[in-house]
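Example 3.
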Amino acid sequence: MNTALPPKPQKNPLKIIRNYGFGLGFLALFIWSFATLPIPWGRIFSQRTIDNIDRVIPKLLNPDFTFAEKVLNYMMETLFIAFAGSFMAAILAVPFGFLAAANINRNPFFNTLGKWILNADRTFPEILLALIFVVAIGPGAFAGVLAIAIHSIGMLGKLYSEVIESIDMNVVEAMEANGANKIQIFFYGIMPQVIPEFMSYAIYRFEIDVRASTILGIIGAGGIGTLLVISSRNRNWDEVGMILLVIIIFVSVIDYFSSAVRKRIV
Amino acid sequence: MSKPLNPTHRVPASLVSSKTKLRMNVIMVIVLVLYILSSYMTNASVLRFDQAFFANVWNMVVQLFPPNWAYAGVVWEKLLETLKMAFVATTIAGILCIPFSLLAANNIVQNKFLYNFIKMFLNIMRTIPELILAVVFVGLFGIGVFPGIVALIIFSLGILAKLISETVESIDMNPLEAVRASGGNTLQVIWYAVVPQVLPQFVSFTLYVFEINVRASVVLGFVGAGGIGLILRQQMNFLSYQNVSTIIVITFVIVVIVDYISNKVRRGLV
């Protein structure tokens, strides 16, 4: 019996060199980045850090439940910010979605413009927007709502435009052939096809916005982040533990319900 | 033969049943009431969009222009630090996520308890926003880039492990069986049967997380965790808005470029 192993497949030497070059380049980039970052290793691996960890971690894991009521109040404000923001975005994103949908907006210039506006909007972090609004109109939840709303338009508009591009155009054509005007086509031809997906995406965005609005308070735009900054500055780590616990529970519950509802809609 | 249509027979007013209509209306009313409640509670009603509001925003926008390009040198330096933080954090998270993503895939781990435990752990990890993690780590390690990198690693570990474990769950199991049948041990099964199937997705997801981390590390400096956020906050407090707009413009351009390159590469991979 022939027990010899089959010959190993020949590899293209150029490919091997390319792969090794890629790997080495990556490694060099990593080492360079790591080495040039100003990390004070002496301070991090010191007795102080160990003391800090000893002090902070047990307190984080033992949340202060007397603080719960205050945290819940702020968490509710966070949810209100997220809801108001996503609702505004869900409605304001509709015109942008139509602007960026290639099958509805046949003008290539405006279509590309719409896509670019949405792209630019998405890359702009909401916390930067919030910072600008806090300076412009003063601290408070309103700045947070505006930041959430404007940032969410970017993602929702893009998802909406993809939904619109995937609709059945035969319905629209049939209605055009029957002499329907633009408004009738919009309400009877397009909207029924896109509403479930629009709603599903809006709920999904609400999920993301809840998470995003928990941090808005760090720069003074309302919500639970306000409390987090105060507690961590005062080094009340048991309060921070309570805040983290509330955020984890609320976000998990909302994620669960949102995905359950979305599964039913689409 | 079917009965001819009755000429007086009326076309139904709508294709949607009245029950569905009622349900839709109730949902609409609930959503609307919730919105009115939230806009009342957050003091963000439509009435706030008055002349004073637009005047304030316009005032702010006017002060942002023109950007102060003399400040660009400082911005570059800090932005490079931000990019390095994102790169280091993503790489470490990419390596650390391998065991987690294998443990969170139900076709690799047969132990139901372990699988559910890891899944739940990753889910909890993903619920905490990176900026809040950064606040905690700044408390632990003091101000600097280190707490920022740790926060980014933990946050991206949650996302990466989830995405990659889903990829692992969807692989073709036949190569695994073949390697096992020819006497391969667990490590050999993973190296020769799992890795080649998930490698393109792995690289693609890691790039995607790098994009997220670049965006996230821009704001980490707000809480003292290093990067460009630090000078952004500082210049904001000094009210030097022209420097602020320099930072915003340069950051924005870099984020767009990173997104663009990463998107192109990812499209080539998968």
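The longest helix of chain B spans residues 186-220. Chain B touches chain A through 55 residues (CB under 8 Å).
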